Amino acid sequence: MKKLLNGIANVYLFIALVGMAILVVMMFYEIIMRYFFSSSMVWSHEFFSFLIVWITFMGFGKLIVDREDIMITFLVDKFNPLGKRIMGVFNTLLLLGTAIVMFYYSIQLTMSGFARTTLIMKAPMAWYYIPLALLMALVVLTSIYHVIAVAKGHVDIYHPEEGDHS
């Protein structure tokens, strides 16, 4: 399952990097057109917002799978190995529950977004919400993997470099 999660995360990262490249090129073009030719693409602001949403949520997917998100561990570090494992399962179950709820509501939000369009581009608003649903799906899968791996003692979610035997 770890290989599947890494594969999905790499696809998300690729989407984020392509989005970043498009954003940089389009912003450069927009700046040149605006300041040197007094012309501007009317739809650029909406498009840039759309790209930033996709870049943010798709890029964060890679961080979640690689466990590079911010974690405060000063209290957990005081526990013995069994206590750390119990807290790891508990914390991961909390994350899993939260991710399931967010996944459910992000699907609802995405579905409702197909009925509305953006003001200028006339693109479905759902395109702003799809990356959140995709990220939450990945967080759910990653959390399921982590619950199992932490319970078996294969992963130390608090110190990834020390305890990742998967």
Output the helix-strand order.
HHHHH
- Could you say which structural class the secondary elements and strand pairing correspond to? mainly alpha
Share of helical residues: over 70%
Mean pLDDT: 90
Unreliable spans are none
According to DSSP, the number of beta strands is 0
How many domains? The number is 1
Please state roughly what percent of the residues sit in beta strands, choosing from under 5%, 5-15%, 15-25%, 25-35%, 35-45% or over 45%.
Answer: under 5%
Output the radius of gyration.
20 Å
| Biggest β-sheet description | none
Overall shape: it is elongated
The number of helical runs is 5
The span between the termini is: 10 Å
What can you see in these coordinates?
This protein is mainly α and 166 residues long. The chain has one domain. 73% of the residues lie in helices and 0% in strands. The chain contains 5 helices and no strands. The radius of gyration is 20 Å and the shape is elongated. The termini are close together. The mean pLDDT is 90. Keywords: Cell inner membrane, Cell membrane, Membrane, Transmembrane, Transmembrane helix, Transport. InterPro entries: DctQ, TRAP_DctQ. Belongs to the TRAP transporter small permease family. This is TRAP transporter small permease. It is found in: Cell inner membrane.
